[in-house]
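## Example record

The block below lists the input lines for one assembly entry, exactly as stored, with component labels intact.
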Amino acid sequence: MTKTNAGRFFEDYAVGDVITHAVPRTIQMGERALYHALYPARHALHSADTFAQSCGLPFSPLDDLVTFHTVFGKTVPDVSLNAVANLGYAEGRWETPLWPGDTITATSEVIGVKQNSNGKSGVVWVRTTGRNQHGAVLLSYVRWVMVRKRGDGPAPQTVIPDLSGSVAATDLVIPRGLDFTNYDFALAGEPHRMSDYKVGDIIDHVDGVTVEEAEHMLATRLWQNTAKVHFDATNRPDGKRLIYGGHVISLARALSFNGLANAQLIVALNGGAHANPCFAGDTVRAWSEVLNTAETTAPGIGAIRLRLVATKGTAGELRDDDGKYLPDVLLDLDYWALMPL
Amino acid sequence: MTKTNAGRFFEDYAVGDVITHAVPRTIQMGERALYHALYPARHALHSADTFAQSCGLPFSPLDDLVTFHTVFGKTVPDVSLNAVANLGYAEGRWETPLWPGDTITATSEVIGVKQNSNGKSGVVWVRTTGRNQHGAVLLSYVRWVMVRKRGDGPAPQTVIPDLSGSVAATDLVIPRGLDFTNYDFALAGEPHRMSDYKVGDIIDHVDGVTVEEAEHMLATRLWQNTAKVHFDATNRPDGKRLIYGGHVISLARALSFNGLANAQLIVALNGGAHANPCFAGDTVRAWSEVLNTAETTAPGIGAIRLRLVATKGTAGELRDDDGKYLPDVLLDLDYWALMPL
Amino acid sequence: MTKTNAGRFFEDYAVGDVITHAVPRTIQMGERALYHALYPARHALHSADTFAQSCGLPFSPLDDLVTFHTVFGKTVPDVSLNAVANLGYAEGRWETPLWPGDTITATSEVIGVKQNSNGKSGVVWVRTTGRNQHGAVLLSYVRWVMVRKRGDGPAPQTVIPDLSGSVAATDLVIPRGLDFTNYDFALAGEPHRMSDYKVGDIIDHVDGVTVEEAEHMLATRLWQNTAKVHFDATNRPDGKRLIYGGHVISLARALSFNGLANAQLIVALNGGAHANPCFAGDTVRAWSEVLNTAETTAPGIGAIRLRLVATKGTAGELRDDDGKYLPDVLLDLDYWALMPL
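Predicted structure tokens for the full assembly:
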């Protein structure tokens, strides 16, 4: 009898199942410093207690993507150990900031299953919820993955969840106390407020970062993400390790400071595709497209919906004539952020 | 007159000498985060304050190997700067958990010397003790190394310490308050309790991690270990740096989560050999063998004695027909851990 | 209209202008741990709260160079984005220690401009001041850089600031409470007090560290220094990234522990030149020359003025017969440190 975790196969997911993911994790100041070492992150609200306090918060919360990565990492042994592909995200909402000292736990509910026609694999949809030590929801999101079947039993009844294409602006949760009335644009790094951005604007974030094996492995381990493709060079003839898609998300988001310095907090993840794999040696660049803007009920705070693209190629270029992602495109992410009106 | 430290030679050790190692070190949340970035560590007691609290501790202690590495690093300038080989460990006991904010100091007593027959070097045994800022013993262990002689003076009287082959289960120190009565196996990551393990069981920990130069140097510097072979590429024609043996210990211990997730705390080091050197580019795997189990007087807590092997090869394979370590074997470590009964 | 920062050109600096640098930064225990992972730093006052307390401080301050790097990083988008060369430093003084939890902001006053005879660029002098969240000055220093001109307008009136060749010993600021009367030389790592050092002494710090791309990028990002030459491999045909000069400063300063373990705090930067660029794969060594010593009014505390040289070559060798830096020399730094009398 083996003692190790072989991961779940398609047959092991039934709609309605709730999976408690193992190994809660306390996040502290150390993770914050590492986030700044791993990514060129400069958004002021995540950089300085004083800036966060001038915006009504008690002190600077961890980067919103620290919550995402930690929760995601918890799910890997139960959701994606035998996954063939990470197919999509939807309905992601950050509901509570992550403060230093908080402990994160995560659960996932199976909300959809659909066997593929080849009978060898199927798609599983889960709604994952990360909570802090008080039970408050930090983040919830839907993810769907293609998972191998163990055997050749009958297909389960197909259940495809009804997912919205984007989180409604009225459903965004604004952190308690957040107030951009006295927002200091000079300290934040750019003068642009929400009204300066128009739907359809394309912003080239200019800078590029070349990724090293050591960096993405440090990051992925930090989130306790154990998927072996990220760490074991013997998995591929060229010895390269597949870079965790979330590493590319954080790189692109950090690069987007240059042009979107005032898009301070991520509050929703509407969707996302890891268009092509990323490997060490790639130089990652980023560009954004403004998809929407909305007011909120919070003082001085607007919401901006952005497409964030990580690419090895040219800003503004996304798909070929057949609608397929260009080979240089690494990430196409759709999210809402908060910005001073 | 040079101001720099040339290290001690064999003649500089006399049985009974006590060496105060320099540079005390305060360990904080940052070291904890770095430990998780450097090693795929997931044992729940070291990951989450809430889990540690459910086991009777005030919050999550630093990984036990942080104590080991920091104490070991302190000894390097005094013990192993002119060492030819690190020969063995014995009688290691962790006596107090390391909490964030603690300051570590270390001393070593010379307990044995034996000149080699070639007259060029000798073996030195030291018992090293690491203490916290309150003077409490965090860890003590015996290490013996082969050290070069400076000159050709007479041999000192041979003193070989009488070392036990393993720490007796009754001598293990259980952290005050630790209680596994309400242990949460789901959050810990595996269902196996001590009674599920039998002496002789071999556990293949499955995963592999390919090591990069940047990673092992970050780790080794973090422990203020200054041995130049770990940092200076000009020491070898191929430019590779010899990886600190303790880096391999931490990698293997972290990998052992998969199959030994409930072996929560290391409480004794019975022995260990760095069987072959490890270099960047090596993919490190791990397997364990159950050597013994024992009850303790603490509530719900058993002790499991494990052989932990780090290897570039196959689980279960250790020595050739002549009893020599196979060339793929990196580490053969013998330790006691605490596990729910 | 672009939303991104194209940086300032020579025409954009006028003497008397004060630039508020963006993105304040809170520094915590995580940055401290990373500093120890990135550099072989062992000075006891920055390593242990207990040692700092035995010297009259409340606990261990961050390394003085953390203050320098963070302040410097803040200035990059406003001062050196279009810089052709970093020409020099002067009149640097640390006035307040950096404690964990402090938030750093920075401003720079333009104190000199001089157009080059080619009309394509010019030299800009700025006095940069870093402050903590209470408004106290942490560090101020003068830096001058060569910056490209945007157009071909007329030259501004030349203003060259009158800079002193070194900070006077009487102008050094000793941290409040610092007292070396009961200094523990054994714990600090070396027995040498200030009177053991003579002007003209050359100290070879012996050890070498080979630098990896991942390491210098982690460091440079940690200081939120965004200069693209440090991160983007497509900037050079060989794919190497130019290493931030400050990374070399920290490496050399950390290596100088071996021979200058009691030069505990940097209190002034008299001058410095990045003599040649440093790239990944270089093995950095360091040597120091004693330039001066002075008493201070603080108990048991002397000041030692040191030349710190980082080199890929031989200790003691600095310039060729024409007075040019040898090609192996990376850094020539002139600073004051505090040392027990």
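The mean pLDDT of chain C is 96. The two ends of chain C are 61 Å apart (CA to CA).
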